[in-house]
Amino acid sequence: MLKLGTFILALAALALPGGAIAQEPAEQEEEPTVLRISFFMCDVGGGAGEAIEEEFRTRDVPVWEELVAEGMVQDWGTFFHWWADEWNVGVYTIAESIQAIVDASDEAGNRLEERFGEDPTRFEQACPYHRDGFYTLGPATGMEEEAASGR
To answer: How does residue 24 score in pLDDT terms, banded at 50, 70 and 90?
Structure first.
């Protein structure tokens, strides 16, 4: 009976692929990119919407462009709804990790305060409520082109 067991083990070893016998280190999987979406409930009547958009363009975008150029985040932007619920203004940030987004947000806040002071902005006055969500990015269009280009 011992010979039969040894024979079966030897046969199984020959049948298994090499990777199953010799454990090789697993390839390091790349962490998924993180998307933060912040929704704000804003009173955009009486020209406030245009003022908020202009404030984003002149104050926030230049600071976030610096952070993108420095590699702290991949992208940052805003969006406004035409037809939706009361969460009518949004801000998105894309980076390698949640921590990268948190760090970049802190740095953006420091730079904005240094350049413009601590007075409440038109955006802060018109948008008293907000909520944040962090997501990992999944399959999307253009992924094969990114992989081919090494991005």
So the answer is: low
Residue 49 neighbours by CB under 8 Å, 6+ apart: 42, 80
The C-alpha atoms of residue 95 and residue 98 are separated, in whole angstroms, by 7
* CB 17, CB 117: distance < 8 Å: no
Between helix 61-69 and helix 98-116 the angle, nearest 10°, is 130
Alpha-carbon distances of 111 from 11, 41, 92, 101, 127, rounded to whole Å: 67, 25, 18, 15, 21
Q: Are 140 and 33 in contact (CB under 8 A)?
A: no
- pTM of the full structure: 0.74
Predicted confidence (pLDDT) per residue in 39-58, tens digit: 999 999 999 999 999 999 99
CA distance 124 to 112: 13
CA 125 to chain centre: 27
Q: Can you tell me the distance from the alpha carbon of 75 to that of 35, in angstroms, rounded to the nearest whole number?
A: 9
pLDDT of residue 123: 95
The pLDDT tens digits of the residues spanning 128-138 come to 999 999 999 99
